[in-house]
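Quick one: structure for this chain?
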Amino acid sequence: MLVLAVCCSSLFLVSLDNTALNVALPAMQRDLRTSVTGLQWTIDAYLIVLAALLLFSGALGDRLGHRRVFRTGLTLFTASSLLCSLAPNAGWLIVFRTVQAVGGSMLNPAAMALLTNVFTGRHERARAIGVWSTVQGVTMAVGPLIGGLLTDVAGWRWIFLMNVPVGALALALTGRVPEARAGHARRPDPVGQLLVIVLLAALVYVIIQAPVSGWTATPVVACAGAVLLALPALLRVECSRREPLVELRFFRQPAFTAAVLSAILAFAAMGGFLFLAALYWQNIRHLAAWEAGVRLLPMAVMTIVCPPLAGRLTATRGPRLPLIASGAATALSGLLCAVLDAPRHSVLLLAAYALFGMGFGLVNAPITVTAVSGMPRAQVGVASAITATSRQIGNALGVAVIGAVLAADAHADTAATFLRAARPAWWIITVCGAGVLALATLLVPSRRRDRPRPASGRASGTGRRSRAAWIVTAGGATVVGTTDDPTPHARSPRDDATRPVIRVTPH
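Got it. Here's what it folds into:
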């Protein structure tokens, strides 16, 4: 229980920091005298580093020990949170957020490994991971309201200051947490890691800065060239390595490709939605931060209610149905705002927010199950980690693209002009939902086409017990394990096992 409390506290810090900060953006903009572009970098500097280092941090824990990596990450996250609260301007805040992301990238992979090392029984492990995942789901839902209250009562800097005592307490308790190491640590891939960072940072820079500086500005052209060079270089390097950072061969499977692209689209819509809503309710409608958080409650409630439903649907009907429902709900939400002008009508806007929360709440479980279906047991963790990275990439791209659309209209400072500037943003969210819907329809197999096979490769009916998979999901976290080896594969060592996860049952 001590290990569970420590791991949940770290997850609380990371999840609350991400969601609560969106509501504080207008207050930060006024206090730091920065532009919409500065706000984009405040969010995306964190997300880029987090996405780029998740796979590396998991491998580092396998090699050095997950408790050691967890303590290092918690120290970095707590110290940088204090620095963020003291940042004198937007530039320093962005620098401190980058350091915070380095620490944050070490927490979740290590926390999952520590949990699975301590909770060895299948049922108690499932319950522990259920609690761990629920913390993320609830924090993600109530984060905007908590962030709004802190901003109005004490100031936006307290969103970061709140991390310090919680992080210090968790750090003090980690001394009683047993160490956990993997039997086989993947080889480091420094060249691939560097190329991933360059690719993500340059791509986001072009999206954010081009509407402001112009497409012919020297830094924009240089970063566009870096993207064009880094992408083929990354493909060549990863294809030549025996243990690459990114397993490109997974993308030969249409279902895995659909899962990764769906994760990018769904989280791009979420990142853009929160960024857009925070600016609209406070800068245009002039509501207090906590009132803006209250306006997001319809979305928040659905993100709590829908994940268990998505888990049951995925287990009984397969991942295609919840993915189709998720894409349809997200697209319909965007259409209500883009075509029917829902922000001008309270009832329509309430429906649009609820639909968006429904779409986001339904997407996580089927994405993870689609990504790992048919994978060898030893590769389930790697596939799941790539999907988790895709979520963060999508979040960063959503903030960059939606923010760039708003920044392109320099006069979006009144209700009428903001709504006009926001219309293309709602169309982008509609396209993201339609993309998830199309990918699910075209590439995700139905349950009838994806029939289970015997785990041993023998014909069914031999008397050998099949391996069944279980999933625990809440908010943005989905964990996969098996009945005869119930370890959730947050990371798995490479071995010669070829037995696939063949059936999904709710636990």
